[in-house]
Amino acid sequence: MECKKLLELRTPLRMANNTTPLRYARNAAPYRIMGSLRYGLQLTVLFLCFFWTNGAEAAVDLHPLAPPNVSSPRATLKTFLDTMNDATQAYKAGHEHKAVALAERAARCLNLEKEPPALRHVMGFYMTLYLKETLDRIEIPPYDEIPDAKAVRTEKMTSWTIPYTEISIALVSEGSSTERFLFSSDTVRNAESYYEKVKDLPYTPQSGGGALLDQLKDTGSLIVPKSLVERLPNWARTEIFGEATWQWIGLIIYFGIAAGTILLLYKGGGGLLGMLDEKFQWGVKHSVGGLILPVTLILFSHVGLWFIIYGLRFLNADVYMPIAFVFLLISYGARIWLIGAVLNRIAAIFVFVGGIVRGGVDDQLVRLGFQALSVIIVGVMMVNLGARLGLPTYSLITGLGIGGLAVALAGREALSNVIGTVMIILDRPFKLGDYIVLGEGERGEVTEVGLRSTRIRTRDDILISIPNSVIANAKMINESAPVPASRIRVKIGVAYGSDLAKVEEVWLKIVQQNELVLSHPAPRIRFRRFGDSALDLELLCWIDPPELRGRIIHQLSWAIHEEFRKQGIEIPFPQRDIHIRTDR
């Protein structure tokens, strides 16, 4: 604006007859000198403004954070070609990192929205190389014939195609006021096929002496230098699916070395942790040993992605993409494995710090919570993986929902057991160590409450596994609740005519001598009924723990029989007197 204002400065006004006004005519020479100085000053300012503007634009272009100029088809094409020519020259000069950075900058002229997010970076780099190779072999109109920003606004253009080709530059709308013209998605996806069609054509004069793709192919890789590649036999340089045989051999060797390294770390690391546990009693093998394998798989996949790009220089996108997909799947699978293992160990820490009995209901509640968290995290990671691989997120979520419904229908028995587990955890009808009796007569100590079943151990040392859905819906007696002590009953009959006071005294003395019977609550004897053959009495006493019920009843019954025999107390057996009446 300042330069424009200086241009608008006028010379002294003249009369209509082109004569000088009187006040200027009196001393014209000094004013002529001043006018010359004024014009010189204007030209100097214009000159400085011009170079200041160009210098600022150059500084912006050179700034690493400045976006490429993609305001019109002309600007996009020029930016792309100029940047790739600079990348080629930088690579020839030995500045490989600078060349790669320039190629990545040129890739910002490509529309990669339809490519998988996880592969956009590498995909953009490869397609940039193929597109530059193609453009260097075809005739491109002069820049003044390509629409610029003014022509785009005037004609309201949304795309422009290089004549006689399918290579197009289209407007990308992202909801912002800035218009961006990028090489279209179809152009990007077909860049390699375009290159295959024109690769036998010579370079055009404006190509700058060859593109970067051939430079990369001719210089070997970071692992195998150019000098070694040139000494390889012909069969090793023969292409298979667009890549040299030595590259495929290198990939196979990498998988072999990686598998051996992973096995060595897993076995050797486990053995080393075991030795440390034996010497220092740290107990780290169980907690840390299970994390070695998923961590090494994650490292293997990430190093593999780097290796096929920079180590072996796989430049064929049709070959690189499937291999990259495999590495990504291994990486995400190992991450899911690692997250599950870490959450299990965190749950164990919670159980240990909280003093929770291992295998009990509280333990299962903590573990079930962390397992549910694991399922949620795995679901989120699967959706994220699908999005990074280019799968529609909403379709993936819908598919997971339908798949979950199918799994639920197919495994309804297992699902009912899981629901039964949740009901047991919330209702808490028993805890670990309780003695329970189920409706079908199973009786034993609760040893573990699992996600699918509950295990009880009988007095015969038999382990019974009962589905949680059965326990949740069955009648159950907990002999250890609400207090650990359990009451037993021992019934006995004495003959009619016996001294009941003496019977009670002798019986209570026998009970009090048994160390397994609790003194509080005190044992008591109750008279129940007049039986057909005896007076029926019942002993009520408390024991702890409940599993001693059988042993204590045996001891009491044995002692009662022996003491009653000594005291002359008769225990009658069932009998019936028959009186025969005869007529005289």
From TrEMBL:
Top-rank lineage group of the source organism: Bacteria
Cell compartment(s), UniProt: Cell membrane
Pfam families (alphabetical): MS_channel_2nd, MS_channel_3rd
Domain Mechanosensitive ion channel MscS C-terminal: 489-571
Any one Gene Ontology molecular-function term assigned to this protein's record: mechanosensitive monoatomic ion channel activity
Main location: membrane
Protein name: Small-conductance mechanosensitive channel
